[in-house]
Amino acid sequence: MWTANRYRVLYVAGFGAVLFLLGVYLGWSGFDTIINMRIRKSVVLEEGSEALNRFQKTPFPLEFKIYFFNISNPDEIMAGGKPAVSEIGPYVY
């Protein structure tokens, strides 16, 4: 036989489960939205913004150098000889 106390326990457990599922749903859908909004807000290049200051005064150079090395004697290397290497580059981006 069910007493009033058991019904109260079931009611509280059901209410807690609904709140938990609602929290999981809102956290799952809302967390991504909040993060994306914060990222969009922080990368806008407006006058006086921190993103613009970081963009204008970078602590490192904004160039990328690539060097290639050409092996001129692959047959001699396969026979155990010393490689003859010539540097090609830099290609700067």
UniProtKB/TrEMBL annotation:
Chief subcellular location: membrane
Biological process, per Gene Ontology: sensory perception of smell
Stretches that traverse the bilayer: 12-31
One Pfam family per UniProt: CD36
Entry's Gene Ontology molecular function annotations: scavenger receptor activity
Keywords linked to the UniProt accession: Cell membrane, Disulfide bond, Glycoprotein, Membrane, Olfaction, Receptor, Sensory transduction, Transmembrane, Transmembrane helix
GO cellular component: cytoplasm; plasma membrane
Localisation per UniProt entry: Cell membrane
Domain of life from the UniProt record: Eukaryota
Record family assignment: Belongs to the CD36 family.
Protein name per its UniProtKB record: Sensory neuron membrane protein 2
Species per Swiss-Prot/TrEMBL record: Nesidiocoris tenuis
